[in-house]
Amino acid sequence: MKRWINKTPSKTLAFVLGVIPFILVMALYQWGSDARKAENSNDKLLPSVGQFYSAIDRLAFTPSKRTGEYIFWKDTVSSLKRLLMGVACAAAIALVLGLITGAIPLMAANLSPIITTLSLIPPMAVLPLLFIVFGLGELSKVMLIIVGITPFLIRDLYQKTKEIPQEQLVKAQTLGANSVQLINRVLLPQILPRLLDALRLSLGTAWLFLIAAEAIAATEGLGYRIFLVRRYLSMDIILPYVMWITFLAFLLDWLLVHASKKAFPWYHSAK
Amino acid sequence: MTKQNNAQPANKTDESAQTQIEFNHVAKSYGENLVLDNINCEVKRGEFITMVGTSGCGKSTFLNMLLGTVAHSKGDILLEGKPIVAEPSPDRGIVFQKYSVFPHLSVRENVAISKEFEASPVLGRLFGERRKQALTETDEWLEAVGLLAAKDKYPHELSGGMQQRLAIAQALIKHPKVLLLDEPFGALDPGIRKDMHKLVLELWKKYQLTIFMVTHDLNEGFYLGTRLWVFDKTRHDPHAPHRYGSTITFDLPIGKTDEASFVKIEKSLESNRLSA
To answer: Would you state the torsion angle of the CA atoms of residues B54, B55, B60, B65, taken in this order, to the nearest 10 degrees?
Structure first.
């Protein structure tokens, strides 16, 4: 008999094995929900599937009685806007700083200590500061995401720039490149796919800061809604929202992978 | 104690046979660690020098000093009478064993990039008609190294030998005064290596290049160039192995190579390997 470490599942078996935990979780939930409902038909903690449907229908497909808006979609749009703006700004800052510190030792000596210091500040600790400086509007939420993920991105891109083989830099110099050309033509194009990799890793953190900011000060947004309806123990809204956020996170990750494969085929086939 | 001066070709009347590169009492040390010591040599235009030696003998350090990535500690290195610039520049072309080509550029773009560096000082990038022209100009060089058929491929689609051909084409388009090869065929299969030897000899003759090549394969070193250098220590202190640096211990014009010297050099490399 083969050792366990040498047994590999077929495609079908791998799929079945992968699906089992999902089915178990759903069955466990159904069982729990049924049991609680049997005891108290008004139980709010584990709503039935039907209650989920009606909650989703109420928020996503029926205009709000008060404003005439579709709350679910409005929350989604405003959360995604904040998230994408924060991530895009962080990516732009990190790309510039990561590249120049990675490429130019003098800039690294100049900027690395302060970047390292700033990256040690827990972003949530400066949230009040952001609210004071940038107000309670959109800007402070976007800023929290930027403050939260930029240091990691800069340090990652600095490292990735350093990892580009020295041979290529020497070669470019023997081909007549100056420092700016070298950054533009050799380093930047090779760092871009690595930036997308780093963004994938930082998206989870970005969501964390987005929801934290929305929980504290917002009037709409996915995180805001969850923390709002928590007061009424509305598990029928909270759980679908959590699943929706999970799906959005998955979708963004998928988009990043596929954009990267499309734009940088040389990067993916060389690995 | 060096022998290289005995071995130089006698004809000094030829215009092209002027001294192109000169090392005068060059030494390199890293702190206490003396790697190279007392390097004295003259190289004429059009010579093809192969360098062998055990690992750690300083042959790569020698090449890197010539390239400009390593600064020498003592003495003078002159290229056409002037001290060499201590950073890589277009007058010295290089082909490394690996990572010499840009993975994000196609074969043509890899060769055209030096034209773009020349014409566009900030972006290093040409557009439209000028870009097209730069790309077309590369064809001559791709043809010379036998890569014309693969001109639109990316490096990861090329075999190791083809990648090295590309690296050579990149270097040649700049018409360097010297071409430096750092174990360029070390990672290739024997059959492909033979093809590459043929190519390098062909290009060397066609473009009258001055070539320095580091190799760990004595056979390659013996039969490829016009001059073979062996790097080794002439003195050894077992209690302070770093006290004495290597120097050029053999300097053989290839015409004079014979079985006896081959065996002699091989023995000296062998004994070093055992004592190391």
So the answer is: -90
Closest chain B residue by Cα to residue A192: B104
**Min Cα–Cα distance to chain A from B26, Å:** 23
Alpha-carbon distance of A50 to A56, in angstroms, equals: 10
Q: What ipTM is given for this predicted complex? A: 0.84
CB atoms within 10 A of CB B196: 20
| CATH classification number, B1-86+219-276, choose in 2.40.160, 3.30.200, 1.20.1050, 3.40.50 | 3.40.50
Which residues span the domain enclosing A35?
4-46
Query: What six digits make up the tokens of B155?
Result: 């490096």
Place of tokens 């005995």: B6
For B177, the closest chain A residue by CA position comes to A174
* Contact: A181, B122; criterion CB under 8 Å: yes
Alpha-carbon gap, residue B177 to B179, rounded angstroms: 7
Cα–Cα–Cα angle for A239, A242, A245, nearest 5°?
150
List B227's β-bridge partners, or say none: B49, B253
Nearest by CB: B118 against A176, A190, A267: A176
Identify whether residues A90 and A9 lie together within a single domain.
Answer: no
**pLDDT per position in chain B (276 positions), as tens?**
334 444 444 444 444 557 888 898 888 888 888 888 888 888 988 899 999 888 778 888 899 999 999 988 888 898 888 898 889 999 999 999 988 899 999 999 999 999 999 988 888 889 999 999 989 888 989 998 889 999 899 999 999 999 999 999 999 999 998 999 999 988 888 888 888 988 998 899 888 889 999 988 888 888 788 888 888 877 777 777 777 778 887 777 775 556 666 677 777 776 665 554
Interfacial residues of B (vs A; Cβ cutoff 8 Å): 67, 69, 87-90, 92-94, 96, 98-104, 113-114, 116-118, 120-125, 154-157, 167, 170-171, 174, 176
CATH number at residue A70: 1.10.3720.10
Identify whether A191 is part of a domain: yes
Q: Is residue A263 part of a domain?
A: yes
Domain ranges of chain B: 1-86+219-276, 98-159
Q: Which residue of B has its CA nearest to A164?
A: B99
